[in-house]
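Standup notes
- HV: blocked on the assembly model, inputs below
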Amino acid sequence: MNYYTEKITRALLPANATALLVALLLACATLNVSAQESVVEEDAVGSALVAPVGVSSVTASDAPNDAGRAVVVTFVPAPVPQSEDQALTLSYEIHRALSQDGPWKKVGAMPSDTTAIMTFKDAGGRDTTSSDYFPTETDLYYRVRSMTVDTALFAESEIAGPVQGIGQWWNSGRSPVFWFVLFFTILTLVFLNVARKRGDSLYIRPLAGIDAVDEAIGRATEMGKPILYVLGLGTASDIATIASFTILGRVSRKVAEYQTDVIVPCYDPIVFTIAQETVRSGYMDAGRPDAYRDEQVYFVTQAQFAYVAAVNGTILRERPATNIYLGKFFAESLILAETGAIAGSIQIAGTDEIAQLPFFVVACDYTLIGEELYAASAYLGREPLLLGALKAQDYAKAVIVVLAIIGVIMTSMGYEWFAEAFKVVG
Amino acid sequence: MKRQIPLALVILFGWLMLALYFIPLEGAQKINENLLDWTAIIGIFALALGIWSLISVNVDKIQYKKRDWPYSIVTLFGLFAMIVFGLKFGGADSMFQGQESYMFRHFFDDILIPIFSTMFSLLAFFIASAAYRAFRARSALATILLVGAIIVMIRFFPFIAEYTRPVADWIINVPNLAAKRAIWMGVGLGIVATGLKVILGIERSYLGRD
Amino acid sequence: MSNNQTNNNSNLSFLERLMLLDRRWVFLVLALVVVSTYYIPMKVPVPASTEVRSIYDAVEGLKEGDKILLAIDYDPNALAELHPMTYAILEQCFRKKVGVIITSLSQNGPGMAEQAILDIVDSTALPRTYNGVSYPGREIINGVDYCFLGYRAYFELVITGMGQNFRTFYSRDYYDVLLDSIPIMKDVQNYDDIEMVIDISGSNVVDAWIKYAAARYDVKLALGLTGVMMTDYYPYLGSGRIFGLMGGLLGAAEYESLADNPGLAMDGMKVQVWAHITIILFILIANIGYFGTRKKRGL
């Protein structure tokens, strides 16, 4: 309230001459507008106007790639008034009916400021009780009413229809996605086959951040301090979080082997249940299920900065030897990483949130950038199947780079169809 | 069996969701909506588990007087106080007016807002300290980064804004965006690849073991 | 660790000390600068960028009785940057008698939204002047001039649901009033019945607005984001998915300046200018130390 009272006082006092000038101009503009309005009113009431010419070439067709709850109406706008006594069309109303004789229902309106062919999409929902209801697989008729300043003065178009809204089995606007997924799946399967034959000899460049994990666990063991593992703010459906589970599994197994401790504070309840299971399994794999305690993996809160406060508190109280931040991070990334640096922990981070990468790079010892995080499971496990998928990913990337270069050249030369072929609609 | 059934469900629903993306038919969309509703329902069950975990960990700390146990009292007090003050029953005269209640609003306005704002403000100090340590002209590339960062920082300074703003906008919108797009492309492919690995049953780490 | 660093620093030369300042000195100096500059009477001119101006122009171009959806999707932590945007837009809409439907899809968003609504509703009850034109005090009525729908969990589902019908997820508003009995919502079924959505967000809710509202339902969408998020969303501006973008305190100050509604953002710009000068000075100090000690370090 104080803040606003202060602002009102400020607004009441004209700041400078410019404000006065602007005020003057606005006042003139306001006068001008009211003058114009009054002329229009006089015209409408005083002189006998005739209705405008209606729109022509009205068509109605089923909207493509939908559930059958939309129809596309097109029409050619009315020409500009030919004589002075003909009223000016201000807008178009689109009406729909279940039969040619009506009753007609207004389903939308468009301003008349375009001269090109106009398109209106009449779409609705399946709730029969809603005014938005759109009957599917039913004969529908459309007409366009050209509205003037006088609501009693309008022109009707011819009736278009019957047309039915019919649901499609295939969204052709998304076909490029389908072809890409198909191409990528085939590529992955080919490389899985290659990987099976060649075993684990497929090369992956070293990932320092992942190599450092083992070293960090060793350090924690020597220091007798725990490892803090933060899965970030992502949900279980985020790929970064899924990748992080893989590394958590590996870390918890090593931690159990070395008889040290891992602490996993969680932000998302579903992530928490999966993390608990992952750590427990890690301890079981290491043959030490008895060493696992439920309080190692716990849920904190779903409030971003309350979570940060809790994790920072843990860092400063427990002084972990190593902090691992892998997953989705937002504004809290630097606060966590700097607190960890103050506590003197070795820090390994990785995220696909690009805006947060600089913060991690500055404050952490090792950072996995974007897709490096996803590659971690293949890198750690060295399983041929995972390595094969990683190779497929690299080749797909190469193909995309080549296509992007061709696209740039083609578009620059005016052949836009090439880029259009990759466009996803709807 | 403990792993096979979840894996089968993941593969089945993974492919189903992928197929539904391409089918606009109403029946398909209804299935899609139902599956999304299930996500919400599962989330609520998991939240109950999460809250139970929070309570049990903190009660345990208090019960056995573990290190820093008084903090756990504050945590539990905060949790229960907001639940109680947020209750709504007993008509207009009742003190339980849900989120409109006097205590709830004051806890929110006078405790939560200042605390959250303070936490976020820490970022300014950490950015300053991180910039001090990171921006050193160690090499030609680091020098370019340093100069770029300074131009972006001074873009709205009085007197020089008209010269620096266009340069800063160019830095943000051209080289910065180009680099980001390159990482995005990798991330995008990585997401598709990992998604495929999940629905092909190759990636199973989320099931509890790698 | 910091104590050790301080002890070791006693044997270092002046230039080396410049390079290895304890981070607590940085914190202290910055805190002093931020607090002291707040009291300096200084006005930072903020010329509006195209992306902020397009939001202002779009709202300014609305007619009386038009409706927009203002999504307040931020928690108190982003208050400093995003609250001024909400205030400026809400105030502009109320001034133009444009109806505002408000949703909040982040957990602590309802508190933020209510605070803004109550502040502005209180303030507009007083007479005030814009551009030299005096406006009488005006009562802003809940349900007529605005409607606050409140929070619903699972924002992706809610945003998609509103594309079908607002009533799918919001049968009642935040104050437990049936949506069908609220005058402003009478003719509003879905996004087709509103002019635009402006999402003020400090979280990933913004992605869902782009993905579902803008992409699936062709909603005219503008964003107000925290400074750190802004660069991530520039591509959407280029592709036309969003029509305007405000980022951080600077974006908020630009909007306040355009809407002739000087508030906390324009006031905060002077603090930001001095804070940035301080950071630049620290960077220069570190580099002086770095170059001064190159020989000693054998580089």
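- HV (later): unblocked. The first helix of chain B runs from residue 4 to 22. The radius of gyration of chain B is 26 Å.
- Next: hand off to the docking folks.
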